[in-house]
Every structure is written in C-alpha cells, then in structure tokens.
Amino acid sequence: MFFSATVLIEVAWVLRVACKQDRATIAAALRRLVETEGVTIEHEAIVRRAIADFEAGPADFSDYVIRESSRAACALPVLTFDARFARGADVELVPET
To answer: Do you know which InterPro entries this protein is assigned to (predicted)?
Structure first.
C-alpha cells in the first residue's frame, strides 16, 4: 500500500477538522500509518520529521511538510503568511508591503 505525502496531509486535516482530534492523537495516527508493515510512504524521512515537528509545534501538519520539503531542497527559509508557523526555525513571515 502506498500513501503520498498529500494523502497524509489530508488525513491530518480530516482528523483535526471533521473528527475534532487533538495534535497528539493526530500525530500518533500518522505515526501508526508510517510504521505499518507493508506501507510505503512518499518522502518518508520528510514525513517523519514533519510528524515530530507537528507534535511539538503550533502550526498545521502541512506547514511542517512544506518546511521539511524545502529543507531537503536546500530552499530555506520558507516564507509564510502564517504567524504561528513563522515562530519556528527556518520560517519567516512574508514582509508587508
């Protein structure tokens, strides 16, 4: 079975919005998917780091996937409009004009 990073982002969103799950529960569910035998995860190392960062940080799981993808591409810092996400390392707010 294969899960793309985008599918995992959607799983996190559904668990948060539709199922009203907390951050720790969502991170645990994502981790269980990633660690399931026979499951292949797109960009597994990026996803694993994003799960750990999501569990500890204030931003959405998708934000951490973006940051870790950017890190892998040597394209930091990430620019964002999200002030919560911008509090983290390697992320900056888009300057106001």
So the answer is: PIN-like_dom_sf
Annotate 84-96 with b (16+ C-beta within 10 A) or e (fewer): ebbebeebeeeee
Residue 24: which H helix or E strand, with range? Answer: helix 23-35
Give CA–CA dist 66/80, Å, rounded: 10
**Per-run averaged pLDDT (10 residues), the chain, 97 residues:** 98 98 98 98 98 96 98 98 95 91
Place of tokens 């996937």: 65
pTM of the model: 0.94
Specify the pLDDT at position 62: 98
| Cβ–Cβ < 8 Å for 52, 33 | no
